[in-house]
Structure formats: C-alpha cells, structure tokens
Design goal:
By secondary structure, the chain is mainly α. The protein is 32% helix and 0% strand. The protein has one helix and no strands. The longest helix has 21 residues, at 32-52. The termini are far apart.
C-alpha cells in the first residue's frame, strides 16, 4: 500500500495494520449535525464517567463544600 520502509512502521501494530493509509477527502458542505452529535456524545460519556467514578477531592455539582 505505501512505500514506507520497515523502520517507519510502528512495530507495536499487528502486521496486517502496518501498511494501512488513511486518507480524508474534503466535502463541499461539512455535516455539522453529525459533528455536534459526536461532541454531545463525548460530553455525555465524560459526565457519566465522572458521575460513576468521581476522582478523590472533586466536588459534585450541587454539593456544599
């Protein structure tokens, strides 16, 4: 796929993944709705993670400190 030498490869990856190449093609109009959904999903996942696994010493919203 690519003409890279073995020294440019990430040896931590499985052999089948070492020659993969990612290409992006710009669109005429970006899909902002999908992008917004992605960010909202990331924020919700982070909030859920913070709620279920709070870090020591962090304040929870609505708590008195």
């Amino acid at each position: 796929m690519t003409g890279r030498t073995s020294r440019d490869r990430d040896e931590r990856l499985p052999e089948r993944m070492r020659d993969y190449r990612i290409e992006a093609e710009p669109r005429q109009s970006p899909d902002l709705h999908k992008l917004a959904q992605l960010f909202i999903g990331m924020a919700r996942a982070r909030a859920e993670q913070d709620r279920t696994n709070p870090t020591p010493g962090s304040r929870q919203p609505g708590s008195c400190a």
